[in-house]
């Protein structure tokens, strides 16, 4: 077990402890480390830029989590059958998740193009004006959320299909005999018996929503005017662009605390809607 323990210490535990210590300092790599106490945390809570970034993160979460839950549940229900074509479509919807993020964002940058993009072309075809998706601060973050939902929904779909296949078909047969319509069967049978899988997917989606980085970096680079800068991307900027490692470490622990708080809250609310 020694190699695994050494790897855990060197690449996990020591960096976690070192970054926690750095969060109480001011350090720009080539300068001396200066102890500043809680100043970094106080600056995060009082800085207009930090508040804007935290607001962007919450707004992204509010778009990403419901979007990916609705899309993945819909796909899972539609593809949970024994048809041969379902295997193809499962693979097709899962493919974006394993496709390189740079390749995905290059394709979506063309789709979102203001003048030549496919999306604006479709909007023009139904009589609507095109949208400057990546140049307008009001649309940049929704564009990142759209790409993130498109890329990740297939992964959550696979998890939910696995949960659906554990439901006894006898429940549906009995409901059909009783005259229950498809929506009633979905609401009264599928959702309650799928609640444990939904809870697991919800936790993963919430954590993922606070850690989005690659798509933001490749699609908008946090712009325009920080409109799509979320907390994970802001940590990267401070650590590896501005070299403010102490401040970036404090931001990372704010993110860690937020994820932990959200997870604990969901586990507390779990007993109210998850059916064992």
TrEMBL record:
Encoding gene per record: lacF_7
Instruction: Assign the protein's first listed, main location to one coarse class.
Output: membrane
> InterPro entries from the xrefs?
ABC_transporter_permease, MetI-like, MetI-like_sf
Q: What is the recorded membrane topology of this protein?
A: Multi-pass membrane protein
Q: Which family does it belong to?
A: Belongs to the binding-protein-dependent transport system permease family.
ABC transmembrane type-1 domain residues are 54-266
* Membrane-spanning ranges: 58-79, 91-111, 139-164, 185-207, 250-269
Superkingdom of origin: Bacteria
A cellular component term from Gene Ontology for this protein is: plasma membrane
Q: Does the keyword Cytoplasm apply?
A: no
Subcellular localization, per the record? Cell membrane
UniProt keyword terms in alphabetical order: Cell membrane, Membrane, Transmembrane, Transmembrane helix, Transport
Is Transmembrane helix a UniProt keyword of this protein? yes
Task: Please identify the protein, giving its name as recorded.
Answer: Lactose transport system permease protein LacF
